[in-house]
Specification:
Elements lengths: L4 E3 L2 E3 L3 H16 L18
Antiparallel strand pairs: 1-2
């Protein structure tokens, strides 16, 4: 699994622990939604302030 975090186009380095936590939270949340196939390839999240 790969995870990148960018804030205002600046990539924020993540250590292995934080990457695993964020991966688990995002994948678990999205996978529980209706209509999401088990063989998904990419999840993209964009948050604007």
């Amino acid at each position: 699994m790969g995870l990148k975090l960018k804030v205002d186009s600046t990539e924020i380095p993540l250590n292995e622990f934080v990457e695993k936590i964020l991966n688990g939270m995002i994948i678990g949340s999205v996978a529980s939604l209706k209509g999401i196939k088990k063989d998904w390839k990419n999840i993209e999240i964009q948050i604007s302030n």
